[in-house]
Amino acid sequence: MISLTGVMKALLVSLVLAVSAYAVAKINLFGFEAASDRLADQVYQRITAADYGKGRRGQRAVRVIYLDETSIEAMKGYGWRRFPPTYDQQWTMLDDLMTVGGAPPSAMYVDFVYMGQGGTSDGFPTFLNGLAAATRARAWADKPGCLADPLVKIACVLAAGGTPIILAKPSPSDLDLFTDIQRGLDAVAILAPAMVRLEAYPLITDYGFDKAKAARLGVRGFDISPAMGLYAAWCLRRGDHCGEAVFERLASRAREALAGRPGRAPDLSQVFDAPLDVVWGSRPDPDYLAVTRAVTPTAPRPRCSTPSRPTRWPARPPRTSSRRS
Q1: 3-class DSSP state of 299
Q2: 315/310 Cα distance (integer angstroms)
Q3: Is residue 88 included in any domain, yes or no?
Q4: pLDDT grade, residue 99 (50/70/90)?
């Protein structure tokens, strides 16, 4: 027989548990709810990452070229005996990529941080001149309106008929240094912070620096992520500007800036205020696995790249030396 006291105790315990659960949900005690939501989202995103984007349109528009251990070893037989390669050798590779498909790519990101010149024979002038020619820097480098921020600089490069080349740099919030080499590169290309150990990458970063500190660290208005730079270049080239009116206004401002009419670039921070989540999927691209099995004896661990072949490297590595996806 169930006593009234037992029933009351059960109801009291249930009430206490219900109130506790409600309180935890509302005040996020110890961050348990946030951590649980984050873990659940990571699991879901990892499973579905490979299917992101209708028809994999975005993935197929990007190619990743990288140098692996086999490439580095093969280079030794062609006089390329150090890593990283010299500046002029690096420009040779970038120049190849500018012409591999018969026309330059929409934009290019070089995931390598250039801090200083490695030596007097490194060929830095060749590297710098190559970048300047590719970006048509002569047309925009002396136009203040084209230097207001990295996005309008990209738009000016495209309006001048050039190819935006984005180079990695440390985040100014992490490293209080901007070298002369970086300043020279910033004059002919676009520098973007390469951040690591993040799950969500801000597309546009306003550091809140005063004018003097911003100038000392080479920050022009704000910084953009490499992904934002590539996306902006792609949308600026499209007739529909990816359906974003702000890119159409940006292209218009760039044309005005090239004509010597300084104008304020549109504020894209309100349009792209959310960070970019980066999720490594659990299923690598089938094309990547198929090709890498033909190159290596065993299938590699999942990565976001697939082997390919450079078109012309005379006295350089053999044709299986680079990879792309």
Answers
A1: coil
A2: 13
A3: no
A4: confident
